[in-house]
Amino acid sequence: xxxxxVLFRSSLQNDLNTLVEAEPILFGRxxxxxxxxxxxTVQRIAGIAKRxxxxxxxxxxxxxxxxxxxxxxxxSEQRAAATLDALxxxxxxxxxxxxxxxxxxxxxxxxxxxxxxxxxRRVVFVVxxx
Length: 130
Fold this sequence. Notes:
Blueprint: H1 2-22, H2 39-50, E1 55-62, H3 69-89, E2 97-101, H4 117-120, E3 122-129
Parallel strand pairs: 1-2
Antiparallel strand pairs: 1-3
């Protein structure tokens, strides 16, 4: 039973993150407003999330390393919260989600160790069993 639960959690997390990797949830530079081009992605995430009861989804916001680290942390927290709010507005139970910002602490790097800023600015999801 535990193996099936871990497999389920891993599969759901992979599905959500594969979707946002292919169709990122974008924001304007320095903005917490979800770009109109990303609304469809948020709708698809909501559709997936609503099908699963008893899971906890952490909406994680990340930024690139440009600018002030404290401002980036606050921006990542606000973007994660904006994404969570959009999902709740689409019917995902608020009790199933939590948002957290990580700022520039988990940058996406190329094979030479250089940051890829456009990939570092992202929202991803971590799923746990409630």
